[in-house]
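Progress report, Aim 2. The chain analyzed during this reporting quarter is listed below.
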Amino acid sequence: MKKIFPLLASFAILAGCAAVGAHKAQPERLIASVYNSGFAESHDSYNAISAGSDGRIYYVLSSESLDTGGQMYSFDPATRKIEHLADLTEACGEKGLKAIPQGKSHVRFLESNGKLYFATHVGYYTIRDGMETMGVPPPGYRAYPGGHLLAYDMAARRIENLATAPDHEGILVLSMDAARQRLYFITWPSGRFVRYDLRTKEMKDFGSQSDGGERGKGPHYQTICRSIAVDPDDGSAYFTNARGVIFRYRPGDDSVHAVEGGDMVKDYFGQYDPSSPGTMGYNWRQTVWDPQDHAVYGVHGNSGYLFRFDPPDERLEVLDRITSEPSRRSGAFDQFSYGYLGFILGPDGHTLYYLTGAPVYRNGTRVAGKRTTAKGEAKGIEDLHLVTYDIANSAYRDNGAVFFANGDRPTYVNSIAVGKDGTVYALSRVSSTEQSLTDLISFNGPYKK
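Predicted structure tokens for the chain:
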């Protein structure tokens, strides 16, 4: 590669990050290391990163190319080495098909019995009315074949192609009931909720609970939920729609229905037109299961409010606004129109980690972005902050803004993983003289060992 990463010339594959004082309540900056995976066509990535039980960090770099699919890698913190593991299109058995490729993975890696389960998504779009729609194949190319469910065997270092999403749709969301060996996913652009049984290989499509989904027109449009929360105690799976309805899949009778006890329509979250593109509406943005509390913790997109959902009572409780301290003081929403996906429960089992935005000020004036958008994008410039929230004692902490060593700020960060030693990893745009590439970054978390 030639001059793709001038930023890396002085600190590519750095040996470590600048240390963050463990007792400093508000460090001014967290300094991020940048890694070069060697993928010259990498594009904005969403979720697509997780820490494996073997200590490695697994991630996918997306591609919007018509001829090149997304690429899967692993990073070994012990050796600081990156290994290329797979081309997603090739892993799906579609190499040479001359079809729109498997350009993304939009989901986290879900580990069970030595395997990492994940899924593929389309990365090549056709823009209509400022919105991303399913890519129309040019002459000589076939339509997108549909997203695939995949399993990576960490010991055998082999990918198994499990199944393909219905109706040539991409897979936007994936979750797992490891005890019952079931995968749950939501497709794009229609928003179908689908159940896949790993033991029987049976797939069941429950259709869309989001009207026409992101292919709907006018009042039938709804932005699709990006997170399925699974209660491992009874195997129920929960997700939302843009109108704020919480749906529950019940494994007992293999059905989906709206819960009666609560919803996502809260004054604190703001007011939304569910049929208007450019926001997540009343959908939750990201969720995690807390095994100690036996509850779902999640964040609502733009507003940055943390909530707790109690499955037995089907009750949702708003807890705290966990966006950055500058955002809390200013009352501003995130500049990223959907809010951020970088929300996870840390290795200690009681600390939530959240990568969120913060307003940027110049000469005392906030730098404003555009007011509206029809798709998920950054409406303006923002700082990136790491916020932690200790569930055990309801303790919020803004750990400071993240910057690269040259003073540039990470952007388009919608992913997070936390290593066993407390190092925080994410996928971010990194500076380039030719184009804005995405790659792996890391920095010391507040509880770094």
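The chain has a mean pLDDT of 92. Helices lie at 88-91, 325-330. These observations will guide the mutagenesis work planned for the next reporting period.
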